[in-house]
């Protein structure tokens, strides 16, 4: 019977082409606007590391005093060298990593071009396992390499393609900034979005990193950060390269892995104790002010979701609601125009329920058609996402199977919801009255 | 016009009336907030940078050996000499950052060394005697730097900067009495102050984020060449020779030395590109809100046409009777126009309340400004006119219903 109603519905679509077109367009535009903005929102607000987001924390310590902190006496968003190294040495978490941004030059072999820029991180061995970096060839360097300040490097498959034509380059040598490194691993494609661990340097939506070298080696070579260095307005006295390394500025994020809440609490206690010790030693003239933020908490705190994304999502949903209100009105007009037809059907023995079902099915066909139009408009609109967001974000938004199903599903559901009242009104038509007035 | 019969008739199609009013209300609420967002974004984009942007471009030059950046001072000077000698180039200077770049170095500015709270958070631009001419920024007070004042500055041995030039807005903030030249400011070291030797006309900082707007026009110009991994050249081409100058400049730098990285994709950018990048979210947001508003108004108008047409069709017999009893075409026309105006009026009133509510929520949620009444009024007027326009066609059709209809079965 439902199939028959579907047929009736399709036929009815053709009967009032203007009204039908209006409804299909309203639903189509509403669905498209919501889907486009949603496709961006789900990327920027997504969980970049779902299986570990509750186990990874960034550790923050106020190392320059409350007078230089932002509202709410929040400590700086990264650590200075002394605090970062102290936390790594303490080994109070299952895994702990520290890093800073580097931009190195590398000469493609046999090339006559200018050197390439390879950006990435100076970090330690735990980075790769904590942030789940996949490897195409080889693997991470060891803690022993960290301690030995070894000249080893890990490169991305992308850089490996440029330098070695994609061959297994493990064991080969590469020159960054006039210094030679032995390649110990080649990462597979790895590009978590948003890049939760490097929000501090504004690399949230940046291109994937190309190179990793040991933090200890980078410090020995006096490689400067290519990322952010935030002294927060505190006066900095620097007379030498050594003093520059120990400056009271935030430039090194530290992340720790703590599998249970109890571990996290213990680590927070350790941080507090550490800051208290610094206060006793006279390094800090203020009470301990520390934070331990999990991945999602950190992303939220840093306002990683651009306000434009939220506003456009809200506006689109509002737009969709208006489209639905519009559809209700039009369906009402369309259905009530057929009062006579309904009267005849009811007089011939159709129950209210049957009338109700028929009209709901008719609305569903409108929804289906609207969904199709919505999909086409979404596909077109996706090209326009780059107008609203920088290319780094825009390229992340894409039309996939789940969005496809969702667009059709939302359109049909919206049409059905919109049809509840008009169909009910149609089912209430009094057969006697209609027949009499005819 | 008789209001009472209209009210009585409305009671017979309550659902449709409420739906149209509700749709108008929602549309109004969204459209006036959208208009307001457009206006705010456009205002941001339209504010002047203070720089003469035509014929200006920038090169991001990364030194290939980051370990030896302490020695690039001589190379920067040689690069600048080569750039300034190019036929297509009018002037050039080397810096760490420039207006509208988005990222850069900013320092707290204090009037006294023991002052804890900042007077401003100001952009730090490293410059030389060619900077003002290259940017096309005028000096409104004091003097320009001399060529001998631009020393090599290592980031690792920061001493106080003896002389600085500041932007007009920073001068106004720090010395409201209007005499900044010769006065000390603490911008770097709290051991010794920098003396203001000049004040520029309006000059925007590198900061374009909305949350640091209070400091958007605060800039400190420091004489010197900052020795770090990235040196940026800002170059003014001779009028009409921008493309040639961009090509020549890159070639001249590579001829000087190949130990540098200039990104083939965005290493060389015109100032127009810099501006577009700085405001791309604003352009995008304004465009999105514009499209949403237009489509929304179109859909609402279409909805009004659809429902009114239905009502006219439903009431042909009644209209025929009224016509037979002596009502003129104008009476019928004004009946439908008045009915629609009443529904629209209700919708607009509800919509205004809704719009203010949404704005209040956005103010709290996104730190947006309060909606100005002007935009509410504009949107309300647009919607009322749109409603009357949409109802015109069906109402005219109704007015053409012949009195004969009264005698026909429905």
Automatic annotation (TrEMBL), chain A:
KW Transmembrane helix (keyword) present: yes
Subcellular location: Cell membrane
KW Membrane (keyword) present: yes
Coiled-coil region(s): none
UniProt signal peptide: none
Main location: membrane
Domain ABC3 transporter permease C-terminal residue range list: 314-431
MacB-like periplasmic core domain: residues covered: 20-218
GO cellular component entries: plasma membrane
Residue intervals passing through the bilayer: 21-41, 311-333, 359-381, 401-421
Record keywords: Cell membrane, Membrane, Transmembrane, Transmembrane helix
Membrane topology field: Multi-pass membrane protein
Gene Ontology molecular functions: transmembrane transporter activity
Pfam families the UniProt entry points to: FtsX, MacB_PCD
Protein name listed in UniProt: FtsX-like permease family protein
Record lineage: Bacteria, Pseudomonadati, Pseudomonadota, Gammaproteobacteria, Lysobacterales
TrEMBL record, chain B:
Keyword match Transmembrane: yes
GO MF annotation: an example: transmembrane transporter activity
Domain MacB-like periplasmic core, first and last residues per copy: 51-249
Compartments it resides in: Cell membrane
Span of domain ABC3 transporter permease C-terminal: 291-403
Membrane topology summary: Multi-pass membrane protein
Positions of transmembrane segments: 15-38, 285-312, 341-362, 374-396
Any Gene Ontology CC annotation: plasma membrane
PANTHER family found in the cross-reference section: ABC TRANSPORTER PERMEASE YTRF, MEMBRANE COMPONENT OF TRANSPORTER-RELATED
Descriptive protein name: FtsX-like permease family protein
